[in-house]
Design goal:
The protein has helices at 4-11, 28-43, 45-48, 63-91, 96-102, 110-123, 125-134, 138-143, 145-151, 154-181, 186-192, 194-199, 204-211, 217-245, 248-261, 303-323; strands at 283-284, 290-291. It is mainly alpha-helical. A two-stranded antiparallel sheet has the order 1-2. Helix 10 crosses helix 15. The chain is globular. The model is unreliable at 1-6, 14-20 and 274-298 (pLDDT under 50).
């Protein structure tokens, strides 16, 4: 396979003449306008149609709402993709194969994908221990019943398939190449572009307030701030992986994996399963059935399980830090980071 630098020579003309100042293919203003447009195109349809707009009596987790939203975000992602491909082919004069490579669609490297998933799993070593060992989930993992059960529901399909695919396509595969075309340094791309991704999740403050009318505003704002911080942090990581591997498949799978793991437990003892008020399932579904009954706590596990969890969590974080660069190294990288 030809070196990555020849790809950039072809599109940007970089490195051909070290003394020549190269002009960006797109202006930063154009890229910002496109990025904002794609973000709005992704989020606004949720509230423009009564089929996708939640209400005090209809949860965002209702199957009808999920189905309608998936249709809208799919159309949004297609429109944004067509626009991006047109912009790249028109202004960068790129061949189709070069466009697909810049978008992270081709070539597909199973090794790069596997390394990215391994790196992500290291970060969630603690939650994997809790899910697999403490909760005995490993039996379901082997049988594949847990995966089948998750993907059999509309909530699972949204969280593990439609959401990660359309979000990574829009906020990584499309926005990052546009920022590369305006010659924004990779480090700035890593910290800037995820802000669009984080802002795209801020609308959940409205949804949560709508379906939890008796909850004070301050806890809702704190919850939304934490969600913005978490999505932005993940966006930094996903952008780093995308630039280093040139694989949108890797970040889609990493995104789905993180959704499945959820936020790692940072306090308390393992073996206590409390769903705080059914935060994501409050309201009514299509049948009028009220959701949000939290799981009852389970007691009885010794303190040793919790100690083991936190040790594994810390070891996983350290291993993640050490593996961040070697496990994302690829000859298909879209940019040199660091």
């Amino acid at each position: 396979m030809p070196p990555v630098i020849t790809f950039y020579h072809r599109i940007f003309g970089l490195g051909l003449d070290a003394e020549k100042e190269h002009r960006p293919v797109l202006s930063s203003t154009t890229v910002a306008v496109l990025s904002i447009t794609f973000t709005l195109l992704y989020v606004l349809p949720f509230y423009l149609s009564p089929t996708t707009r939640p209400s005090p009596t209809l949860s965002r987790d209702a199957p009808s709402v999920i189905r309608a939203r998936i249709r809208f975000v799919t159309v949004s992602a297609i429109l944004s993709t067509v626009t991006t491909i047109y912009v790249i082919t028109t202004y960068a004069h790129a061949f189709p194969i070069e466009v697909f490579r810049l978008l992270g669609w081709y070539p597909i490297s199973i090794l790069d994908i596997a390394k990215a998933l391994l790196l992500t799993a290291l970060l969630f070593a603690g939650p994997l221990f809790e899910k697999g060992i403490v909760e005995s989930g490993w039996r379901e993992w082997i049988r594949g019943s847990s995966l089948h059960e998750s993907l059999s529901s509309w909530i699972g399909w949204r969280n593990y398939v439609a959401g990660p695919t359309t979000e990574e396509l829009t906020f990584r595969s499309l926005l990052i190449p546009l920022h590369l075309l305006c010659l924004l340094p990779p480090t700035k791309i890593i910290f800037l572009t995820p802000l669009y991704f984080g802002i795209a999740h801020v609308h959940h403050v409205y949804e949560y307030n709508l379906t939890h009318p008796h909850t004070p505003l301050l806890p809702i704002l704190v919850r939304s701030l934490l969600q913005f911080a978490y999505t932005t942090l993940f966006g930094w990581y996903a952008t780093f992986v995308f630039l280093r591997t040139g694989s949108v498949v890797a970040v889609v799978l990493a995104h789905a994996f993180c959704n499945w793991c959820g936020l790692p437990r940072l306090w308390g003892r393992v073996g206590r399963f409390v769903e705080l008020g059914g935060a994501e399932r409050r309201g009514k579904d299509d049948t009028g059935r009220t959701e949000g009954a939290g799981a009852a706590p389970r007691w009885g596990l010794g303190i040793g399980w919790s100690v083991a969890y936190y040790v594994i969590l810390v070891v996983g974080v350290v291993a993640f830090q050490r593996g961040l660069w070697p496990l994302t190294e690829s000859e298909r990288a879209l940019a040199k980071v660091g």
